[in-house]
C-alpha cells in the first residue's frame, strides 16, 4: 500500500504545481474554489485532477491506518 500512497503523493504534488501555474493571476490560493469559472479550460481540468488525486491520497492514507489498526487488534 505504501507504493500507492507514494505514487499518489507525487501525482498530487505535480498537479498542485500545475494548478498554481494555471490559476488566474491575482486570485489567492485560499480563494481558488470561489473563482473556478475564471480558470481556463486546461486550468479547470488540472484543478479537477488535483482534487481527485488529493481525495484518492487521503482515502489511501486513512484506509491504510484503518487496516493497520485492524491488523493490530486481531493479534
Automatic annotation (TrEMBL):
Swiss-Prot/TrEMBL keywords: Membrane, Transmembrane, Transmembrane helix
Membrane-spanning ranges: 6-24, 45-67
Name of the protein described by the UniProt record: Uncharacterized protein
